[in-house]
Design a protein that fits this description.
GO molecular function: oxidoreductase activity
Pfam families: adh_short
Keywords: Oxidoreductase
Family: Belongs to the short-chain dehydrogenases/reductases (SDR) family.
CATH architecture: 3-Layer(aba) Sandwich
Number of domains: 1
Number of helices: 6
Distance between the termini: 35 Å
Strand order of the largest sheet: 3-2-1-4-5-6-7
CATH topology: Rossmann fold
Protein name: SDR family oxidoreductase
Helix content: 40-55%
Length: 231
């Protein structure tokens, strides 16, 4: 089974579809329950795989832990965990909205930390598994309107690299995914042509391809940008 957090939109939804097409059972979450139910219906009908969904607000630790318990209750061994949930509030460190740092650290970083800790035990025990952390180009490139978002994504990349070192001896693979501008809800309303963005499906294909490698190899970082470069 694969767990994808934030699976109803953008990159998360594309990853859900890609792995469902490959025959994986899916577990996912979102803050929007109607969207989850619609996704569950669509994926089940289209790919004939099991789909488990639960509403959760990943800015709240208790809801992250509740989702981890929900995943465990399915009774299915976890093969792949994709930490995808995130929030982007544009701004600059010196003048951004009060609380922006806390909100983005809680949602983008702390949820990844707590969910990984809650679910990784089974992978370690079986000596098999793959964790993908959806970081960002903002994890390696500072830009003027990135503010606390870039801080949270820099931290997430650091988390991925630390976890990679820890998991080597347990045969659990860890991959950081760093997408550039990708056509998702975060870019809604921007007056730019679609072909200026990467496609969510392209990111999903790279994730699936990295996972399909033999367990003797791991893609540690995936950097994927629009062909014309960063926005």
């Amino acid at each position: 089974m694969i767990v994808v957090t934030g699976g109803t939109k953008g990159i998360g939804k594309a990853i859900v579809e890609g792995f469902a097409k490959a025959g994986y059972a899916i577990a996912t979450c979102s803050r929007n329950e109607p969207e989850l139910k619609q996704l569950q219906k669509e994926i089940k009908e289209k790919y004939e795989v099991e789909v488990f969904v639960k509403q959760a607000d990943f800015s709240k630790k208790e809801e992250v832990i509740q989702f981890a318990g929900f995943v465990k209750q399915t009774g299915k061994p976890l093969e792949v965990l994709v930490n995808n949930t995130g929030v982007f509030i544009p701004g600059q460190i010196h003048n951004e909205e009060e609380g922006a740092l806390e909100q983005m650290m809680e949602t983008n970083l702390y949820s990844t930390y707590h969910l990984t800790r809650a679910l990784i035990g089974g992978m370690v025990q079986r000596k098999s598994g793959h964790i993908f952390n959806i970081c960002s180009i903002a994890s390696i490139t500072a830009y003027p309107n990135g503010g606390s978002y870039a801080i949270s994504k820099h931290a997430m990349l650091g988390f991925s690299h630390c976890l990679r070192e820890e998991m080597k001896e347990h045969n659990v693979r860890v991959t950081a995914v760093l997408p550039g501008a990708t056509l998702t809800a975060s870019w809604e309303g921007v007056d730019l042509p679609e072909d200026r963005f990467s496609k969510p499906e392209d990111v999903a294909e790279m994730v699936l391809a990295a996972h399909k490698l033999s367990e003797r190899s791991v893609v540690e970082d995936i950097v994927i940008r629009p062909q014309l470069g960063d926005l």
